[in-house]
Amino acid sequence: MIDSGIDSGIEGRGAALAPGGAIGILGGGQLGRMLSIAAARLGLKTHIYEPGANPPAGDVAAAVTTAAYDDTEALARFAAGVDVVTFEFENVPALAAATLLAHAPVRPPPRALEISQDRVAEKAFIEGLGIAVAPWRAAGDLKDLKAALAEIGAPSILKTRRLGYDGKGQVRIGDACRADAAWDEIAGAPAILEGFVPFQREISVIGARGLSGEVVCYDPGENVHRDGILHTTTVPAKITPAVRMDAVLIAGKILNALDYVGVMGIELFHAPDGTLLVNEIAPRVHNSGHWTIEACLVDQFQQHIRAVAGWPLGDGSRHSDAVMTNLIGAEAEEWHRLAASGAALHLYGKAEARPGRKMGHVTRISPKPA
Length: 370
Ligand code: AMP
Prior knowledge:
Elements: E1 22-26, H1 30-41, E2 45-50, E3 63-66, H2 72-80, E4 84-87, H3 94-101, H4 110-117, H5 119-128, E5 136-139, H6 142-152, E6 156-160, E7 170-173, H7 179-185, E8 191-195, E9 201-209, E10 215-217, E11 221-226, E12 229-235, H8 241-257, E13 262-270, E14 276-282, H9 292-295, H10 300-308, E15 320-328, H11 335-339, E16 344-347, E17 358-367
Parallel strand pairs: 1-2, 1-4, 2-3
Antiparallel strand pairs: 5-8, 6-7, 6-8, 9-10, 9-11, 9-13, 11-12, 12-15, 13-14, 15-17, 16-17
């Protein structure tokens, strides 16, 4: 790129990917689709890497590679053809991240992937920062589980260490003598036992950290799940200014500790005694941050693209109140009615509406009280 010199005083411009550059995204779902739209708005291109055919992001990306996550040759070719690599989901094999790193910068850092892929590593990391989490014990076998139950007690939740999402790979244990049945239910996979938190509410903070270390956090949203899947996110969450500040400080601490670059979703429980406990972190844009598209000047997708491209972060302050509702499975068949409802409608271009599948979402905004 030829620099005119006009903007040469702008701090950090040398590290920024200029318009026209290409961002590689591992994963081609709705998050990759909304990231691609955001990138296009900034004059950047995206290249999607996805094992499945016809990914939702493929409709709006400049290029798509269809290959497996363990295909090191395809990964190397993909990374060599883009300026920076990011991802839209966290279960990318560690080897894939290592292969990519040999050819292009990977943002967020692969360490964030490693930590969030394993619930035990995640809990240990967060606790190590002095941030509260639910009581937990690793359970590698049934004997461990029984010992963990003796310490933590019931009710508790047994979760597989890896590959759990939307409440999958989880069993609620209401009574300590149900250990054998719970162990069978998760098919003996390495697990973690967590004490059940009788939370007042679930909230999440969407935080972003730029290449130069600046942090921008969105206002916490309040999340309601249905059948283990996010149903609504409402902003503002019904929390005091002090709790809001705590939530944002927790997010900042996690982002800084990982020397993170990009957007992260941090899910928290607001406990009955008013304290906050981190449930989990997602090193990517997050479903509970979709409301930012309509209610903020710079949304989570723009912010992630800015961060990984080394651009300055934007203004993430909220100008409206918002309620985001996911459209799951057949709910998206209501698209015609929803399009006329005054809400902002988003459909992800998925051909088949399987039960439990995220097909789209709607966001309703209203004026933020003065
Ligand atoms: P997760 O996959 O860990 O996000 O869990 C999915 C949902 O299960 C959470 O959003 C909570 O509603 C519930 N849940 C998970 N862990 C706990 C816990 N330790 N105590 C109470 N509810 C939980």
